[in-house]
Specification:
Helices cover 50% and strands 13% of the residues. It has 10 helices and 9 strands. A 3-stranded mixed sheet has the order 1-2-6. It has a 3-stranded antiparallel sheet with strand order 3-5-4. The longest helix is centred in the first third of the chain and has 33 residues. The radius of gyration is 28 Å and the shape is elongated.
Amino acid sequence: VDSEKSMLSKLKAECGAGFTSKLEGMFKDMELSRDINVAFKQHMAHLADNESQNTIGDKIDLTVNVLSMAFWPTYTVMQVHIPPYMSKYQEIFNKFYQGKYSGRKLQWQASLGHCVLKANFRSGQKELQVSLFQALCLMQFNEVDEMTLEEVKEASNIEDGELRRTLQSLACGKARVLTKIPKGKDINDGDKFSYNKDFTNALFKIKINQIQLKETNDEQKATEERVFQDRQYQIDAAIVRIMKMRKTLSHNLLLTELYNQLKFPVKPPDLKKRIESLIDRDYMERDKDNANQYNYVA
């Protein structure tokens, strides 16, 4: 954290407060969340002392990060089916938070949740570090031995694509705590799943990673275009800086200088577009006698 704060202060000094305002907001959210969680644990201990534990149900160690929407990326809200003993803790936290900060509204982001589950196998007990979606799928098998894809979907209410990736991580990945019938790498309609009691692993704590959604070619091109839009200002600044220093320069020498200064890959046609743009805006001009030569315009 100290290294991150040091980096943040350097960015602020170099790029200005506007550039780092959201990052600073993120740090404040995390610090405030730590204080809120300490107070919430004291609140839960007070409830237990007053013998209200029976109304809470199974004991869960709940930690909540309260994030301001203004500072963090936007996430799609998914309304999933959470077991009553887990949602009870959400209700307790809601009441506790509203008591401290009246007027604020909490929106639970299921896609960002993480859980640690205690799982019993024939080889012994393990701790599984999983996402909330993975936990909701696994907990279905506390009651039944086998479920189809459609049954898991109905019970959890997880979005179809997200559910298929989640079950893929549990039944087709390195840590196969679920068994899929029929076997295969993809999750198809009608597939059946059962709890793999024979699962073994040398580690006691096992982290099961969620399978990431692959970016399509169109999305990749759109991302590259957005990145280039952000970088074009850096390219413009580098061209002006070089021309201001050298006054006159040939096209090839200007490209060589730019490749030496720019820290990211860029194609010659993109550099040519930026040079043309600067000529149109009267930052530089083509030499009247040599079209391959540029002169700086003071």
